[in-house]
Amino acid sequence: MAAMAKVRVRQKNQITIPLRIAEAANIKPDDMLEISYVNGVVTLIPHGKQERKRSVMDYSGIARGVWGDTVAEIDKELKRERESWER
Known about the structure:
The chain is built from two helices and two strands, in the order αββα. The protein has helices at 19-24, 71-83; strands at 33-38, 41-46.
């Protein structure tokens, strides 16, 4: 069963979604939520959630250290890898 959290309804019927729940549901500021009330249960559902576009720069450095940490280590690893190719 999902964790339950208590929130206070503020003036103008505003609530704050607890951080751990917002993170788990990937809810970010300015996201739209659909709200419904059925049989005594209030439900919030992310509306039209689209994958956020990422910049190519978000991936910079993603493979750092995979082939080594120094230029010499990287060159050695690339040479070893290339020698393993079938020709």
